[in-house]
Amino acid sequence: MTRKSFQMLAILVLVSGVASAQTDNNKGYLTGSFETNTIYYKDDSKTDAKSPEDHFGSNNYLKLDYYQGKFAVGVQLEAYEPVLVGYPTELEKAKLTNYYVSWADKDFSVTAGTFYEQFGSGLLFRSWEDRMLGLNNAVMGARFTYNYKNIVGLKAVWGTPRFGMEFSDTQIRGMDISFSLSNLLRWEKTALSIEGSALNRYEKIDVDLSEEGGKPYSNGFSGRVNFERSGFVVKGEYVDGGNKYYGFIHDDKLYDKKRGNAQLLELGYNGNGLGVNLTGRRLEWMNSEIIRGSGSTSNLLNYVPAMCTQYTYMLTNLHPYTPNIGMIMNSISGEMGGQLDVFYHFKRGSVIGGKRGLKLHANFSIYYALDKEGTAHTGNLLFRDFNIDIEKQWTKAFKMNLLYSIQEYNPNYGKNKTTNLSNVFVADLQYKFTPDFSTRLELQYLTTQEDQKDWMATLLEINFAPSWSIYGSDMYNHGDSKIHYYNVGTSYAKSRTRIALSYGRNKDGYVCSGGVCRTIPKYTGANLTITTSF
Q: CA 515 to CA 308: how far, in whole Å?
């Protein structure tokens, strides 16, 4: 069956299912969602931001799913008219991009069409959608899952990953299996499982690469152990990412072959108001691409997030960390480092907690470039961050969050020892005047001797529950450019629909989601966002 004929079949099944549901509500039900993000761009002489030729960008998504018993069918329509500035350029025009048919019961499921899946932590393989990043690498093919008495779990996948608006010619075949020793032995207080994955990737290669010994296929593997008891958690994973071929003239060779690998270890404890998590990770040549050599931010076949604090405040996100997964031009094979995350809740009535308690959170993360390939020897510092935040509910009406972060990052991705250091201070103050009227005020300051010098930022948000919210913010680089990056906006929410309208000036930099980032250009304009579901 061709993709186009399967597409038409999915639409017909969906339409017939909806018609059936209208005649008998017990037979099935339809769910859906719609999202539009539209920006009108304008030139800005202050920042030198230039608008696209027609001044408009618009990303739109319509998703429909129909369920009837163990059966489900769904489609997703996407339209980029044109794509928003900064998103992958391969997203264009309108098309029915995703469509599937699936059947599932308690222990067994099968899917034909597009699907999302992840093996382990995702270091070996992950397909997922993130509209903020412009990423959707859904696989078109077939997926099979089986669960035997919660002792053995099996996943098998085959298909071609999506790249942009089309499905690539690259093929992936994979299997993931998990075995629960604790369920087999009926342990009640201990959980112990052993897991493993295998992934085969096939892509046609050019003659030059073939002549130098390159292969069109690559095989990757991972093994994992998970242990939990009395609040303690231990997780370990080893990944063999398979062979990678880098186009680079070296010793009269057009290509360099590298072997990807990664190691991940997590130790944690959670209990009695205390949460501690220690994570260590080593990466080497861990880029996994849908299409070899494409520099698109959507050209991902695995998930390698930044394992550090994921900030939401403006100034803490000026220079977010992106992992070094191997850079052939810089002769850096990867990185090694980790983070320690500690949370403690001082209970109500304690000396420090007071009448309403107090929450304390601290995080330290540090990463180094690998100094020598195939070893654990560390070279230049890539990133270091220590932060501490305190959350305190002083009264029923007033809540305070205080954050301090000291960040150091390498602007050359480890090529030399140069680093930039900054200190960031944040006060987040919330006050509820009535059950329907509240305000939130953010005060932020960043001080540094490097880069663009000092910054200050503020945000005021006024909420009229349950529907209306208005805000105004300004991020000002008073240490260098003297530019105000201002934004004003309002939003209205009713039931499952939210409408937001804003206008402002946006700095070039990064937008991040789930530890994965993409670069964005500077722009000025008005933004309309509508989301609804049914």
A: 8
